[in-house]
Specification:
It is a single chain. The chain is α/β, with parallel strands linked by helices and 232 residues long. 45% of the residues lie in helices and 16% in strands. The protein has one domain: Aldolase class I (TIM Barrel, Alpha-Beta Barrel), CATH 3.20.20. The protein has eleven helices and eight strands. Strands 1-2-3-4-5-6-7-8 form an eight-stranded parallel beta barrel, surrounded by six helices. Helix 4 runs parallel beside helix 5. The relative contact order is 0.14. It binds cytidine-5'-monophosphate. The site of cytidine-5'-monophosphate has 14 residues, from strand 8 and helix 10.
Length: 232
């Protein structure tokens, strides 16, 4: 599995997104399109970025009844994205349905990864709001195992969990990890962070990097620094 840096394009309009991507003349970084941009611009933003030659991780985190997820995944698959995701909390059956919907007639499909517990959920809120009383670590690994059993390719997780996910689900099970910051950079609202070099060391397969690149004075240089630390 190729290691890569995915830029989180957390912009609210196509205009801002293209202004940002235009800085990368010649370079075609792997980009993540999240709910904000997708809901603002619709599927056309995916097609336009794809037409420019970028790989796309469409981060819409589906979670619904299996039939609805299956049908929605088949629509996303036709958009020709390279990676997409769902909530493992939707159950193994929902994840299996997602794979069915995502698989194209020729047998190919985008990489499908699961969100386990959101990193914004902590032990206290999981117990109080969700009535899940197991240690969060155990819950995350259980959800990752469910995702693997359903045939998914990997999970989104904190870089701090990547090693354990690989130990639990195997080396080939992909870990996509946000929460990446440069050693000399701003942490912002992320709590548990890791440098690109440390994420590489611990075995992350893809890092998702937003503001350290999008808010940098020189985004291209910041991206190249990530690639150098993580991929080389
Ligand atoms: O700007 P920053 O590098 O913090 O952006 C990280 C990206 O990864 C954002 O798009 C954020 O929504 C996403 N993400 C995250 N933590 C998760 C899942 C997704 O930061 N657990």
């Amino acid at each position: 599995m190729g290691k890569d840096v995915i830029i989180a394009c957390d912009f609210s309009s196509a205009e801002d997104t293209f202004k940002f991507l235009d800085k990368f003349s010649g370079r075609k970084p792997f980009v993540k399109i999240g709910m904000e941009l997708f809901y603002a611009e619709g599927p056309s933003i995916v097609k336009e970025i794809k037409a420019r030659g970028h790989k796309i991780f469409l981060d819409l985190k589906l979670h619904d009844i299996p039939n609805t997820v299956k049908k929605s995944m088949s629509v996303l698959s036709r958009l020709d994205v390279d990676m997409t995701n769902l909530h493992a909390a939707g159950t193994v059956r929902m994840m299996e349905a997602a794979i069915e919907g995502l698989t194209r007639e020729d047998g190919t499909r985008p990489i499908l990864i699961a969100v386990t517990q959101l990193t914004s959920t902590d032990q206290e809120s999981m117990e109080k709001d969700l009535l899940i009383n197991e240690p969060i670590d155990k819950v995350v690994m259980h959800y990752a195992s469910n995702a693997k059993a359903a045939g998914l390719d990997g999970v989104v997780c904190s870089p701090l969990e990547a090693e354990k996910v690989h130990n639990t689900c195997g080396k080939d099970f992909i870990t996509v990890t946000p929460g990446v910051r440069f050693a000399d950079g701003d942490i912002g609202d992320q709590k548990r962070v890791m440098t690109p070099a440390a994420a590489k060391e611990i075995g992350s397969d893809y890092i998702v990097v937003g503001r350290p690149i999008t808010a940098a004075a020189d985004p291209v240089a910041a991206y190249e620094r990530c690639v150098k630390e993580f991929c080389d």
